[in-house]
TrEMBL record:
GO biological process terms, semicolon-separated: ribosomal small subunit biogenesis; rRNA processing
The organism's place on the tree of life at top rank: Eukaryota
Protein name in the entry: U3 small nucleolar ribonucleoprotein protein IMP3
GO molecular function: rRNA binding; snoRNA binding
Record-linked CDD domains: S4 (cd00165)
Iron as UniProt keyword: no
Source organism phylogeny: Eukaryota, Metazoa, Ecdysozoa, Arthropoda, Crustacea
Matching PROSITE patterns: S4 (PS50889)
Ranges for domain Small ribosomal subunit protein uS4 N-terminal: 4-107
Keyword Lipid metabolism: no
Family of the protein in this entry: Belongs to the universal ribosomal protein uS4 family.
RNA-binding S4 domain location: 108-170
The organism of origin for this protein: Moina brachiata
Entries under InterPro entries matching the protein: Ribosomal_uS4 (IPR022801), Ribosomal_uS4_N (IPR001912), S4_RNA-bd (IPR002942), S4_RNA-bd_sf (IPR036986)
Amino acid sequence: MVRKFKFHEQKLLKKVDFISWEVDNNLHEVKILKRYRIQKREDYTKYNKLSRDIREAARRIKELDPKDPFRTESSANLLEKLHSMGLIPTKWSLELAERVTASCFCRRRLPVVMVRSKMADSIKLATQFVEQGHVRVGPEVVKDPAFLITRNMEDFVTWVDSSAIKKHIMEYSEMRDDFLSA
């Protein structure tokens, strides 16, 4: 049984709102966590920190003298890296690097890439497939849904050879050879 609050305790509790904190961006964070099926909040905070660091680096590069050869070299390196990771669509402007958010990292997670390539109907289902070990990237089986896929790796996301899902797909498209699977 919980005791009843005293008068001064009730008065203090009226001043504090436990639901929405001004410092916390909780509602937006929960919305992103649900949309991309992120199980660990630490992953999202890492993505936020990385995106903040990228924006800071882009801002600092932009502050340099436009004729400085270091500026052109470092901006080219940053844009090339962000483009190869799939965080920005083109590598032409530093404006794109200033718009990198945590959602950009979330869109490069393995389950989201699987949904985009029509390997699964929903992110929830794709996350289950990854956790159960049905998906491989190149030769390695990946069981972590937080695995980030670069542009080069997108083509190598496939089903594991012994996966029951792959067998169902092969049977459906009438490509399965009964002789080899016996």
